[in-house]
Amino acid sequence: MTTTAPLLAARGVSKAFFGNPVLRDVSISLQPGRVHALLGENGAGKSTLINLLSGALRPDGGIIEVDGRAVARMTPALARQAGIAVVQQELSLTASLSIAENIGLGAYPRRFGLVDYQELAARAKAACELVGLNEKLSTPVGQLSLGRRQMVEIAKALYRKPRVLILDEPTSSLSATETRILTDLLERLRSEGTAILYISHRLNEVMALCLHVTVLKDGTCTADRALEGTDASGLVRLMVGRDPGDLFPRWQAPPSPANAISVRGLSAGLMHGVDLDIRTGEVLGIGGLVGQGQEDLLLGLYGAIPARTTSAAVNGAAGLPAGVPKANALGLAYVPADRKREGLHLIHPILTNMMLPAFARLPALKLRSRKAERERGKGLAAQLGIKGDLGRPAQALSGGNQQKVALAKWMPHDPLVLLLNDPTRGVDVETKREIYLMLRGFAAAGKAVVLLSSDTPELVHLCDRVAVVREGRIVTTLERGALSEEAIVSAAMGAEKQKVAA
Amino acid sequence: MSTIPSATPAGALYWPVQARRNIGVRSLFVVVLGFLIAYGVLFPGLFTASGFAKFTQSWFPLALVAMAQAILMLTGGISLAIGATVSLGAVIAATTMAGPLGVAGGAAAVAVTGLGIGAATGFIVVRLRLPAIVVTLAGSFIIGGAALLVLPRPGGSIPEWLSDMLAGNTPAAFVILVLIVALWKLYLATPLGLSLYASGENPVGAYRSGVPVDGARIAAYAISGLLSTGAGLFVAAQTGSGDPVIGTAFTLNSIAAAVLGGIGFLGGQGTMRGALAGSLLLSLMISVMFFLGFTPVAQYVAQGLIIIGAVAIPQFRKVQQ
Asked: What is the pLDDT of residues B204-223, one digit of tens each?
């Protein structure tokens, strides 16, 4: 089967945006019955390559081939006809339509010019069964959690019976169980002859699932070979172009910790009855499956959603902050997970974004000093390694750099407690490393860092303690000595403890 | 298109989906029912044939413009030209129907005008990617001007039999409204109609899924134009003549009705049944306050407060959850 013509291929494609080359002479060929990994840091050109393959963009040079024949002008419509389905990172769903209506969107079965709901139900159900979606087909997508929506998105791609399936970071919002279902499914599709292109920042998934790998670095192809015989650190080397050493900084015991935040009986959002001590000089991890209430815990501590406690002390003050300005005054800072919507103001300059918390502290009618702002912005950019002109809008930055800006804006206030919501989600390896170093640095400087993360290795290697959340409660707090991926996952899954540990 | 055999029967889908759409508007239905009962108590004539006919006739044009506005808001657009389009529909009806074109020809002229204006507006908004609020504001001046050109001062006439049929003691208006709603359900069951929601809420995602986003939106503008001029024809039949500024109040009332009905400004949020209930509520509110002896000023103030309340209550509930 491996010698047949590739179902979809790019031969020496190049693409530039506004004169900046994004891809240079890149080739990739997707064989039937093979899971092909596409790796690269953010900004390496992965999304652009997908867009070329699916016809959303046209290459400046090179050709796209379907079934071994060059396609003169690839369009999204042609790609769909050729059986190419893409699961994009941003979801393409409509919240007010039902699961079935979303799955069939753009390719509804018709009868007498009307949507054939019976046929739609049958076909959507078949697609849902493949991904283990057992919600009622009439459920509006708006009522589903992010992870379930991602599954609907995948079901939507499967509904079209693709010959080529391209998945762009499909597991970034999935729970461990959902990830396993997806892995099994991809294995099955592969055995049925589907060509799969799999993009992920999670190397263990890639190692487990894929046979062949293409690595992009700065728009050029640095590897195109079988995965056999490589290990995770070898892959990272190919992506960053040098030996990454250890991704995580060496752990050191925190110096004599003191309680920065201490709460008893906290209830906020999904969370209830939480007892938690957050100590200075340490990184406290918050783990668990996606959507168990972890975010509400951070927001509750930050005063961003209503919270009740039986007793609480925050940096010496009794009670939780009643609102965000109060929390900031007490030395708390929060960096949200969704940087595009909550963390940054994308159309505004990087500098303005960095200065926003500072504006809140100025007397309302005081005149701004542009010069001081520029100075301070430059200092922050140097401190956090943000490159380029600070006058550009924040959206011009890559994901990793945006995350740095979201962090940077709190630095002038020297917060005592940093509440971080999944700061490395969708961030490339190199930036991850920088962020890890920074976080350890903050802890060493005597700050308390609370790291909510969906990335288990990160919790294991970076944190001093990890609180695992399940169904709105902290089910266990693992000390450094007891930290392992198995321990976190089994605590997160509760009932499946034995199975995972085995 | 091959059929995928399914292990278990998928079951009915259409009706559960429809039932789900009621969830957001149930409390609105209760409020409307309350106002209907109040109206019935204050004005027992509602339950006679002519009382019912009169009531539905006073509601009918507002229902039509509420639908016209709701379609656009579902696609993420809005129109400030609805009132002007109603006026233009009214003057075209009043100048053509009694002339050589006759009633059928006049109605056709009204329909073609509405569809044409709507499609042209839609084309400008969608294809040139201009903000709907600006295009339709400009459109309202142009269309309003056109209405004044057709009929500079109130006049013209509608054949008496047509006025009697539409605005006399028959429930014709109600029957037509039921028909329009049925047609809407039918449209929403077509791929193009259903695409309306996806095109409004997540246009990029819809485009990637192969939805003809531009087509769905332009079609929505055309339908909106048709409903607006249709409302104009009805208003002309009610008054027996044409008036080039008669529709002005409908622009803001159509937005008020749609908002009361739970249609969101961001696109893709809300349902047509909600918009219709909203228009009925608005119409009932005006009548009930009239019977309670509110002065016009008090009526407007109360109307405004009720609209804000209607939008605020679901928000409060969301916060509490």
From this structure: 888 888 889 999 999 999 99
Token pair 């997540």 is at which residue?
B202
Q: What is the pLDDT of residue A241?
A: 62
pLDDT band at residue B27 using 50, 70 and 90 as cut-offs = confident
Spell out the domains of chain A, with CATH numbers in brackets: 8-240 (3.40.50.300), 257-331+416-502 (3.40.50.300), 340-414 (no CATH)
Instruction: For residue B123, tell me if it sits in a domain.
Output: yes
CA distances (Å), origin B106, targets A134, B90, B94, B103, B162: 55, 11, 8, 5, 12
**pLDDT tens, position by position, A280-306:** 989 999 988 777 888 899 999 998 888
The domain in which residue B76 lies consists of 50-279
CA B274/CA B258 separation, integer angstroms: 8
CA pair distance B233, B251, nearest whole angstrom: 16
A319: left (phi over 0), alpha (psi -120 to 50) or beta: left
Residue B21 CA to its chain's centroid (Å) = 18
* ipTM reported for the complex, 2 dp: 0.84
Contacts of B19 in chain A (CB under 8 A): 138
Mean pLDDT for the stretch of residues A153-163: 92
Report if residue B117 sits inside a domain: yes
**In degrees to the nearest 10, what's the CA dihedral of A196, A201, A202, A206?**
30
**Pairing between β-strand A61-66 and β-strand A212-217 as defined by DSSP bridges:** unpaired
Of chain B, the end-to-end C-alpha distance in Å amounts to 44
Whether residue B294 lies inside any domain: the answer is no
Q: Measured between beta carbons, which residues in chain B are less than 8 angstroms from residue A91?
A: 202, 205
The residue length of chain B stands at: 321
Helices (H), A199-334: 203-209, 232-240, 294-301, 324-329
Smallest CA-to-CA distance from B9 within A88, A129, A267 is with A129
Taking an 8 Å Cβ-Cβ cutoff, which residues of chain A contact chain B? Answer: 56, 76-77, 80, 86, 88, 90-98, 100-102, 105-110, 113-115, 117-126, 129, 136-140, 156, 161
Q: How confident is the model at residue A42 (pLDDT cuts 50, 70, 90)?
A: low
Q: What is the mean pLDDT of residues B75-84?
A: 94
**Which residue does chain B place closest to A56, by CA atoms?**
B208
Token pair 């989600």 is found at: A425
Per the listing, tokens 């995580």 go with A248
CA distance B47 to chain A (A): 37
**A129 neighbourhood in chain B, CB within 8 Å:** 6-7
**What is the token pair recorded at B141?**
């001046």
Least confident of A6-15, A101-110, A173-182, B159-168: A173-182
Paired tokens of A78: 């042609």
Least confident of A226-235, A308-317, B24-33: A226-235
State residue B11's pLDDT score: 58
Q: How many domains is chain B built from?
A: 1
